[in-house]
Amino acid sequence: MKMIDLEMMRREYLKDGLHRKDLFEDPIAQFERWLDQAVKAEITDPTAMTVATVDAEGQPSQRIVLLKHLDERGFVFYTNYESRKAQDMADNAKVSLHFPWHMLERQVKICGVAERVSLTESLKYFSSRPAESQLAAWASAQSRPISSRQLLMKQFNAMKDKFKQGKIPLPDFWGGYRVVPTVIEFWQGGAHRLHDRFEYTRSDDGWSIERLAP
């Protein structure tokens, strides 16, 4: 089989520039603007974000989750509290998020500290999920080895039978994390690899903004 010539795969980024005068002073407001534009552009899964964690031995790991809430406090996602990512965050709460909006030639990187959301917030979101998704949270011992797909479906059907008579409760091992941002970078592709990058950094005095070389 002929190998793909990776060195020759390239394209120019020619959509839009990004200028300091066009940025909100608040990075959350700037993110909301870009997210709204990504949704309107009908990008597939515009809320999909990579979550990067580091385990106790210093090994980084990444996975994609969905952003489920955003406000001035930070970026919220939900997971199993016994999953690999949760174990990593228990050892090192510093994480990084990444939104790859390739269609708009944009990306956003967030660095911050993860903390659990309140039980009320987790319950509110869990209750909004389809019943099948609620059952899946009960059925899956996330990140642990499992012998087969058949066993996973057996566990799912067992949970379906267990809770068939009423409301599905929130598992005590499942809930949300809020990533409280300390640094947020907005990247807009530019011609000749001269991209526009602006980094917001939080301090006691608020947010500062500086342009970064591409």
Overall description:
By secondary structure, the protein is of the alpha+beta class. Helices cover 26% and strands 34% of the residues. It has one domain: Pnp Oxidase, Chain A (Roll). The protein is globular, with a radius of gyration of 20 Å. The model has no long low-confidence stretch (mean pLDDT 96).
Short description:
The chain is α+β, with helices and mostly antiparallel strands and about 210 residues long.
CATH architecture: Roll
Order of helices and strands: HEEEEHEEHHHEEE
Count of helical regions: 5
Biggest sheet layout: 9 strands, antiparallel
The general outline is globular
Helix/strand class: alpha+beta
Domain Pyridoxine 5'-phosphate oxidase dimerisation C-terminal: 174-214
Domain Pyridoxamine 5'-phosphate oxidase N-terminal: 35-157
GO molecular function: pyridoxamine phosphate oxidase activity
Keywords: Flavoprotein, FMN, Oxidoreductase
